[in-house]
Design goal:
The complex is a heterodimer of chains A (222) and B (279).
Chain A (H helix, E strand, L loop, with lengths): L2 H32 L3 H29 L5 H35 L11 H20 L2 H7 L2 H22 L4 H33 L1 E2 L9 E2 L1
Antiparallel strand pairs in A: 1-2
Helix pairs in contact in A: 1-2, 1-3, 1-4, 2-3, 3-7, 4-5, 4-6, 4-7, 5-7, 6-7
Chain B lengths: L16 H11 L4 E10 L2 E11 L4 E5 L6 H7 L10 E9 L2 E2 L7 H7 E4 L11 H11 L5 H14 L3 H4 L12 H14 L4 E5 L7 H14 L4 E5 L3 H7 L2 E6 L2 E7 H4 L6 H7 L5
Parallel strand pairs in B: 3-8, 3-9, 6-7, 7-8
Antiparallel strand pairs in B: 1-2, 1-4, 4-5, 9-10
The chains are: A mainly alpha (222), B alpha/beta (279).
Chain lengths: 222, 279
């Protein structure tokens, strides 16, 4: 394999490893929340540093490859790798936020939930998994298919925020716990946003079509 | 940046939609319009029915592996192929509408309109800097000192060399550095006021600093001239050109806006070539 291709493969491997850490981080954060697992919440927080280091390493590899003046699909892949690593780093940050709230909530009496956060958890996690699978498999159709789901997550987040706000007014003693859940809901919504961003970048890698900010996913292509 | 739908260019004729777009965007008729151009050296056909329009006041890069016919294509545009006795041409080349392959067109007068700069700078070694620039004019009968002086300064200014040589115009051209000599050759080509400038790997023998000066110069010159440049340097094509044509085995494989060719080529052969995975 040519030396340049080996370096490109190393970049992809690094990004995939980072992705698996980010995905695990979200899963563990959600698990810490639902299982009221204080220790697991602390672990998610400490592992965020690993994801941060991956971002730096991916960027360094990408910059070194860009210095070799790649073109066409190589250029698209390297440029996108930097963007995906940034999105994954932020996914890690959101997982840490969830873990922090899970840690705090685990120290409080359980809140009799008036909202079901599980559908949103499943949808956001599935979007993240599908986006990363689309990247691994270079599958633009799969990437496009998951993008509309972001609206569903947005809608679920709004419902949860609304219900929690109402619950706080009626039960002032639950304000702190409800606020923590609001942050969790917002973080899940942001994770879905990052999954959508990654999916859009997969479309760009594969088809050179820039579908960001395009109504109905219509591309601004080269 | 010109945006467009991903396209597969039909063949033949292989005329880029991009160049049609360039015309629509205000540069009027193409400077050079080539149709079904085939070039033979003896029995060997080195160009096969090439058709493309080169937009006026734009830079068109010709890329492709060695032996693909890109230099032959460039040389046929000012009929330099005729210097090879066995050369034969079929097809049509129009310069602003005029059929330049017509026997009525004098190759020497054509070469005044379509100037050329070569890979290796080739100043006349026994001549001064000034004489190198004005030699073409003097060969064409221009004798007036004021005209020669004005063209000398103007050409050197256009070639971004004036400031470096204005105090030593009588010095031998060979006293200049390689990069300066190449810009001197560009000044010499500009002195006869061509309409088109052909450049055959003009910076391949230069260091990065001199290369950057040539590339900056190309971008500046395109405001006034139509430029076609043959280059093996993909990044140079990406930096300097508006349109890029990829040649392979004497055929035009793909032609389009440079931004698209280097980020999203339509043809696999082009992708493989620009990413260095050819063959």
């Amino acid at each position: 394999m040519p030396y340049f291709d080996q370096e490109l493969a190393a970049l992809k491997d690094k990004l995939l490893t980072m992705a698996s850490y980010a995905e695990d981080s979200v899963r563990n954060a959600v698990k810490a929340l639902t299982a009221r697992d204080y220790d697991l919440a602390l672990r998610v927080r400490s592992e965020d540093e690993v994801i941060d280091r991956f971002e730096l390493e991916v960027d360094e590899l990408a910059i070194n490859l860009l210095a070799k003046a790649p073109l066409a699909s190589d250029l698209r892949l390297i440029a996108v790798a930097m963007k995906i690593s940034q999105n994954l780093e932020r996914v890690g940050d959101e997982a840490t936020k969830i873990a922090n709230r899970a840690r705090d909530l685990s120290q409080e009496p359980p809140l009799k939930l008036i909202v079901d956060i599980n559908p949103m958890v499943h949808l956001a996690l599935q979007m993240l998994k599908d986006a990363l699978d689309a990247f691994v498999n270079q599958a633009p159709a799969a990437a496009r298919a998951l993008i509309p789901q972001d609206k569903e997550v947005d809608s679920l987040n709004k419902q949860i925020q609304h219900r929690l706000a109402g619950h706080m007014i009626e039960n002032p003693d639950t304000v702190t716990r409800c606020l923590n859940l609001m942050v969790v809901s917002k973080s899940l919504e942001r994770i879905a946003d990052h999954a959508k961003n990654i999916a859009e970048e997969v479309v760009y890698i594969c088809e050179a079509q820039d579908i960001r900010h395009a109504p109905g996913g219509r591309a601004v292509g080269m | 940046m010109i945006t467009e739908e991903r396209q597969t260019i039909p063949k033949p004729p292989l005329v880029a939609a991009d160049s049609a777009r360039a015309r629509e965007q205000g540069s009027g008729s193409p400077a050079l319009s080539v149709r079904n151009l085939s070039v033979f050296f003896g029995k060997v056909q080195v160009l096969k029915r090439i058709s493309l329009d080169a937009a006026a006041q734009a830079v068109t890069a010709i890329i492709g592996p060695s032996g693909c016919g890109k230099s032959t294509f460039l040389r046929s545009l000012n009929r330099m192929h005729e210097l090879v006795p066995s050369a034969r041409v079929e097809g049509e080349i129009r310069l602003f509408g005029e059929d330049i392959l017509s026997p009525e067109v004098e190759p020497v007068s054509l070469r005044r309109r379509v100037g050329m700069v070569f890979q290796k700078s080739n100043p006349f070694p026994t001549m001064s800097i000034a004489d190198n620039v004005t030699v073409g004019l003097r060969l064409n009968g221009v004798r007036q000192r004021s005209v020669l002086a004005q063209r000398l300064e103007h050409s050197l200014l256009m070639a971004a060399l004036w400031d470096e040589v204005k105090d030593r115009l009588d010095a031998p051209a060979t006293s200049l550095s390689g990069g300066q000599q190449q810009r001197l050759c560009i000044a010499r080509a500009l002195a006869v006021q061509p309409e088109v400038l052909l450049m055959d790997e003009p910076a391949s023998a230069l260091d990065p600093l001199a290369t950057r000066k040539i590339e900056d110069l190309i971008r500046e010159l395109k405001k006034k001239y139509t430029i076609l440049i043959v280059t093996h340097n993909m990044q140079q094509a990406a930096r300097t050109s508006d349109y890029t044509a990829f040649f392979y085995l004497g055929e035009l494989v793909e032609y389009g806006a440079t931004a698209r060719i280097f980020t999203n080529p339509a043809q696999k052969q082009t992708e493989d070539y620009v990413t260095g995975r050819f063959g």
